[in-house]
User: Fold this.
Amino acid sequence: MHLGIGFFATDLTNDIRDVARAAEDAGFESLFVAEHTHIPTSRQTAYPQGGDLPEVYSHTVDPFVSLSFAAAVTERITLGTAVCVVTERDPVVTAKEVSSLDRLSGGRFLFGVGVGWNREEMADHGTAFEDRWAVLGDRVRLMQALWTSDVASYEGVHARVSESWQWPKPAQSPLPVLIGGSSRTAMRETVAYGTGWMPMPARQALPERLAELAALAAAAGRPVPPVTMYWARPDRGVLDHYAALGVQRSVLLLPFEPDVLPTLREWSRLVREDS
Assistant:
């Protein structure tokens, strides 16, 4: 099983270049960054993890800018979004950013996508919360058309593009699209158009969720998608449990602190124990 690092790249925390170099030097397989375009001050939507919303959420650096800097100072580590909130983005522009980053990084990008959880943030982008999964599906499918066809078009309810050229194409084919979310809907969408599922720990036992994912894939006549567990606990017993269940990758989220490098160095022992 691969071990990755999750990081909120902000103007309050370490420079993404320092974190990327340290993660690669420590032997981590991947580095994922989060995205929020803004946080409305109304705060009507409760923080999913409970309590007050951490300040870093309103300070995130654009993920494609930050990962471009990370790619420029590294050679091997895989770079990803966890997650890119596609329901708040223009899909044609995002398709160009994704393919450009994958091409310039030498095929090191993992496109983790999600619907988002903040109703007010989503509304500011013109997306109705009730439509979020349909919006995500249309926009990802549009992007996949642009990545794979010389002359691409897509006509959906929530996204469309006329017959168009768009280059560069991603270095990877297919480009990995990891669907974030722990719900049955997220699993169903993963089977429909994703290449991997990226849940977080939830109340439902993971073996039950993996069995449900396998059943959905079998019903659709599709292979079971690989699983990336996001926000995994930095605990050897937990990670070994995930590995035994067939989880492909576990991502440890660095704390919301100004200096995360000491924690990253401490967690590097988990990489050494795996080798």
In short: Residues 2-274 form a domain with the TIM Barrel fold (CATH 3.20.20.30). The radius of gyration is 18 Å. The chain has a mean pLDDT of 97.
